[in-house]
Each structure stands twice: as structure tokens, then as C-alpha cells.
Fold this protein.
Amino acid sequence: MKASSKPSTRLRQAEPTPMTHRITTQIILFVAALLLFTQHVFAQEVVPEYVLGPGDIVRITVFQNPDLTTEARVSESDVITFPLIGSVKVGGLSVPAAERAIAQQLRSGGFVLQPQVNILPLQIRGNQVAVLGQVNRPGRYPLETLDTRLSDMLATAGGISQTGADEVVLVGERGGQPLRVTVNIPKTFAQGDFSKDLRLEGGDRIYVQRAPMFYIYGEVNRPGAFRLEDAMTVMQGLAMGGGITARGTEKGIQIHRRDSEGKLQVIQPGLSSALQAEDVIYVRESLF
């Protein structure tokens, strides 16, 4: 008896088309380009190796030689004293370079055949930054990390004082060339543009200038010196001084201002007039 033939229920797998090959290739190329771009971006942010300097305290260990474990301070002449080999110059060297220098002397002296030296910085004091001017705790501060930024160091110095200006001056050296940058700290944070919040290096100096001031005297409730804010008017200045007393008058307000040549001018301002640095507001007593 002849067997009846049934249609096959097995589905044939679709053959990839040239269009599928093209799309797959484009996806692979896109992913590869994205990976290369990501690597390039991260390469731009590589933190430079820390360079040892005078005042740094390091712990040095040699693998399988615990008797050689040493804590040493880098002297002003850039050297440390290490067992068996004596003085070793490590100042001005990165940590890996200093490790190689010690290992080379241990090997050449025949003390350790294949030394594996490890250096751990305990206190980084060689690379210091001076913070001067209108901050709450001026002084010299060590770079505790390799990625210490301008804002970090200002925070370490207690922040800008009430008499300090918004703009901070950073002076240093980069690649053998002098560096001088002025950074407006409030604007940097308000705009979220941290391109000028630079990474600090040893020897940098930060200076916070005194904020521009104006002065009020006469018939106001709180005469004295006050910080001049951006676009401040006479009315706002009077408010800083607690306002005019009951004996004072708006009609008798004067501003004493020096011109570019230092000559004193007496101005009769309106309440909406703009104040300038070092202006002196005088409120007269009412005659009636």
C-alpha cells in the first residue's frame, strides 16, 4: 500500500538578506566608535601621578622582607634614609619611579636579588598650596589627593570670608609656563560650568581679594561699611544701613565719589542710581 505523503510542518529558517548584513555591520561600527570615543574622553581626565616632595611621609615595604619595612620623611634635600642602602633621593620622583630607584639600589648592592618595593604615601605635605587674602583660615595647605580642585582648597581654608570678593585669583605654573586665572566662584556654581575649577598643583597660590565696599553715614540707623553687590542702587544701599532715621530726609542724600584722577566729586543721586565701589552715602538731617 502506497504511503500517503503529508506536507512537512518544519519551518525553514529565513536566510539573512544583504540588507540585514548591512544593518548589522553598521551597528557594530557604531558601537566600536562609541567605545573609542568613551576611552578618549576618559583619557583626557587622567590624573597625573603624584610627585614626592619635602615633608612627605611614606611607608616602604619590600615583598617577603618584613624587616625592611620603613616609615620615612622626605627631607628638604629630597632624600630618605632606608635600611642597608642609606640615603636615597626620591624627591621629584613619582611613586613608581621612587619604587624602582630603591629596588635598583637593593639589587645592585646584592641585598635582595629580585626586590619588589611598594611605597604608600601616608602624609602628602611636599606639594602645598598657599591660600591668601580674604578667607577664614589663610595659610599653607597640603594637597591631600591628586585631584584637589580650587573649590576644595577654598573649603579647606574655611571658605571666603564676609569681606571677600566673588572672584578668586589662582597663580601657578603649568608645563613650565606661568598660569594666572581669575575665577568667579558664585557664577561657576550657579552656571554649572566647572571648567575653571582647576586641578591644583604644588606651589600654586590662591588669593581672594577684598570685596568692593561702600560706606554710609549721617541719618541712617546703621552707619558703617558694607559690601557692594552687583548692580546695587542707592535705595538698596540705604536698606543695608537700616534705612533713614526719623530725622533724616531723602532730599538731602549725597554721594561722595572720587573720579579716575582721585578728585572728590559730590553727587546728588536718585534712589535708583547705581552705586560704585568706595562710594560714601551721606544722609542729611531734615530741617523741618
Q: What stands out?
A: Residues 132 and 207 are 5 Å apart (CA to CA).
